[in-house]
Design brief:
By secondary structure, the chain is mainly α. It contains one helix and no strands.
Length: about 130
Amino acid sequence: MQRFQQVKQAVITIQTHWVATLKARQQQKQFLLTRRAAITIQRHWIATLSTRQQLKQYHNSRGAAIAIQRYWVATLKARQQQRQFQQIKQAAITIQRHWVATLKARQQQKQFLLARRAAIIIQRHWHTSQH
C-alpha cells in the first residue's frame, strides 16, 4: 500500500507539473497573441498618426502654395493695371499737348488775323492819304 501511495503521489506530482506546464504554454500562447495584437494595433495607430501628420503637412503646403499663387496673381494684375494706367496717362498727356497746341495755334491765328487786318487798314489809310 505504501508503494501505491508513493506511485499515486508521484502520479499526482507529475500531473500537477504537467498541468502547470500546459497552463504555462497556454499562458505563453495567450501572451504572444496579445503581444501580436498590441503590436498590430500600435502599427495601425502609428500609421494613422503618420497619415494625419502627412495630411496636415499637405494642407499646410497647399495653403501656402495657394497664398503664394494669390499673391503672384495679385502682383501680375497690379503690374498690368500699372501699365494700363501709364498708357492712359500717356494718352491723356498726348491729347492735352495736342489740345494746348491747337489752342495756341488758334490764338496765334487770331493774333495774325488781327495784325493782318490792322496792316490792311493801315495800308488803306496810307494809300488813300497818298492819292
